[in-house]
Amino acid sequence: MSNKRIYLDNAATTRVDDDILNEITKYFNVEYANPSSIYKESRTVQNAIYKARSSIAKLINASDDEIYFTSGGTESDNWAIQCVKNENKKHIITSKIEHHAILNTCKYMKASGLNITYLDVDKSGFINPQTLEENITKDNTSIVSIMTANNEIGTIQPIKQLCKIAHQNGAYFHTDAVQAVGKLNIDVKDTNVDMMSISGHKIHALKGIGALYIKKSTHLKNLIYGGSQENYKRAGTENVPAIVSLGLACEKLISNNKEQNYIRNLRNYFIDEVLFKIDDCILTGNSDSRLINNASFCFADIDSKILIILLDKAGICASVGSACTSGSVENSHVLQAIGVDDKYINGNIRFTLSKYNTKEEIDYVVSNLAETVKKLRNN
Ligand code: PLP
């Protein structure tokens, strides 16, 4: 196994699906027309965009005209938070464990004069709906933005319940579902969310493509102005190969229970093995309401930055905290928010699986991890 690389960082990004890659190549050098032109070639491309939009809508139970393509999860989050129009209300509620795409957008909104409330979470990373009730105000809360599932610890939030509280108080509800799409069944009609962010590269499509679901009744200004693309709401010539890749990825995810079960079983096996074979180790997040591909641990008395380098040398790709902060020495804001003990907080490591991982890989990782942790503790 020593020359082989084992990729267990699928929350950071995923390998593009081979079928998708084959299918989209033609949009670079054959069907490359600008979809806004009027000749036959353009109509072919328009149809491809139409089909992609429809596949995304079908996956989340939306209407086609509620799906807007963006450059990714970050843009979708920015659009929802920065541009929602809800009378003259000036209060945003979010949580302490959101991705930086939300947290830093909120920071910007604060600098522009809005009030921001960051809700606490419990030890598993859950937001207590009562906490939302205590902080929301009918007069001033414009939008509540709570992620469907966390990128570091995988905790899945009670979105339907939180959304109901937002609506009862006249606020819009947005959810960042970047990590959740494809890993749990999402139905925007059932949860009743007003906006939802999606990203392509987390589900085996290309990087630089995403979507924002916008329920018809939502008042949202443009983030980007220019041409008439996306029904005048998001200008810029469409990134056709990427859009098609996202559509195909969603198509593959419709009724993919078999694949979901495969990933969940493999992940469960991984967690059980790690907890059984390595002493003084905790699983962060919640064991039940958890993304099917997430296995994140904290090892006592370990510096995970060293651990990750040793795993890399052994051919294993994993990550410390969130991908976006992996180069920084600061502890993860998520682990701080769930109150991980000092003894454990520096020993955090996140493994996120995909359909491409095998049991053989997991066995190799567990034995290597156990050996490496032991060695580091003995030094
Ligand atoms: N939101 C969450 C929860 C994420 O995990 C990420 C990426 O890691 C993003 C947003 C940003 O998405 P993108 O990389 O498509 O901009």
Number of domains: 2
- Counted by DSSP, the helix tally is 14
What does the radius of gyration come to?
A: 21 Å
The description of the largest β-sheet is:
7 strands, mixed
Kindly report the name of the CATH homologous superfamily of the largest domain. Answer: Type I PLP-dependent aspartate aminotransferase-like (Major domain)
Predict the CATH topology of the largest domain: Aspartate Aminotransferase, domain 2
- What's the SSE pattern? EHHHEHEHEHEHEHEEHHEEHEHHEH
- Unreliable segments (pLDDT under 50, ≥5 consecutive)? 322-326
Shape-level CATH architecture of the largest domain: 3-Layer(aba) Sandwich
Cofactors, ions, other ligands: pyridoxal-5'-phosphate
Silhouette: globular
**% residues in beta strands:** 5-15%
Assigned CATH class of the largest domain: Alpha Beta
Helix-and-strand structural type: alpha/beta
The overall pLDDT, averaged over residues, is 96
Give descriptors for this structure.
14% strand, 3-stranded antiparallel β-sheet, Aspartate Aminotransferase, domain 2, 14 helices, alpha/beta, 7-stranded mixed β-sheet, binds pyridoxal-5'-phosphate, 379 residues, Aspartate Aminotransferase, domain 1
What order do the helices and strands come in, and which of them pair?
Layout: E1 6-7, H1 18-24, H2 26-29, H3 40-60, E2 67-70, H4 73-83, E3 91-95, H5 100-111, E4 115-119, H6 129-135, E5 141-145, H7 159-168, E6 172-176, H8 188-191, E7 195-199, E8 210-214, H9 240-253, H10 257-277, E9 281-283, E10 294-299, H11 304-313, E11 316-317, H12 333-337, H13 342-345, E12 348-352, H14 359-378
Bound molecules: pyridoxal-5'-phosphate.
